Each structure stands twice: as structure tokens, then as C-alpha cells.
Amino acid sequence: MKVSKYLSKHLRHQPERIGLTLDPHGWVPVEELLRAAAAHGFPISRAELDHVVAVNDKRRFAVDGVRIRASQGHTVEVDLDLPVAEPPAYLYHGTVAASLDAIRAEGLRPMARHHVHLSPDRETATRVGARRGRPVVLSVDAGAMHRTGHVFHVSANGVWLTEAVPPEYLRFPG
Description:
Layout: H1 2-13, E1 28-29, H2 30-39, H3 46-55, E2 61-64, E3 67-70, E4 91-96, H4 100-106, E5 116-118, H5 122-130, E6 135-140, H6 142-147, E7 153-154, E8 160-162, E9 170-171
């Protein structure tokens, strides 16, 4: 878990803290990452890195030959170059009750990220929401959004991304 959190921090949010420069699409050479991590007191072997990439339940990282990047969730400027995709009729968003008033008023916004992250099923959205407390799962009428011109992308790990979800496309539980 520590390696995964370390990778997320430096591949999504603060690459400069360990001297990394992501390319425009978020990629960095694996060997450069390993050298930088070791130089900053967090040595990771290639085997450990490959293991974390392979077993991460959210498939947060992608390896392409000799390069690695975070699949999504960046707060630093990157263009993941994800294809535009037609979403399923409904997608889901996990949150907590404390956020519901703001969501009802403003919809879902990306906050510090580049996109709103949506899950393909309720189970995944429940796990996402549970990271911050008791989860509340919202349904997103992605089909209607798509028909009215909202653009969706899907990352390699199945997370759906869109710029924002206006409140009229959200269905709240109970």
C-alpha cells in the first residue's frame, strides 16, 4: 500500500518533489522514477513496482514498455489523450452525506482534478465513497448527458471521466 500511495502522490500530484518531469501525457521513464524514488529515500525495486501495478485493485497505473503513468486523477496539468467514448445509460458516483447539499446545488465538479470521476457500477462507487466515510451512491444519467453534448472519456482502468455533471442529471438515493 505504501508504494501505491507513493506512486500516486508523485505520478498524479507532485512529480517535482522528487525531481520528475512528466511528459505532456503523464508518462515518465520507469528507470527515472526508480532512481528518483531511491534518491529521495524511498527505494523501490522494479519487481515491487511491477507487482503494485499488477495487483492494484483500481489499476491506478499503466505501464507502456519502459514508461509508467497514473491512469487518471491528476492535479498537475497532463493530457491523458483518452478517446471520447459513448457512456452506458447510467454511471455512478460515490460520495458522503456531508457533500450532498453542495452537489444538489452545483452538481459534480472536478475540484482539484481535471475531470469528474464516475464508476461503471454501484459496487465500485460504494468503495470510492467509503474512503471518506459512510458512502452515498448517486446515479448519473450519462445517456441523457451524452445526448445533450456532454463529452465522456474512459480510462484504461474503466473509470469514466467528464468535465462536470449538472444537478439535473443526478439521481439521489431515497
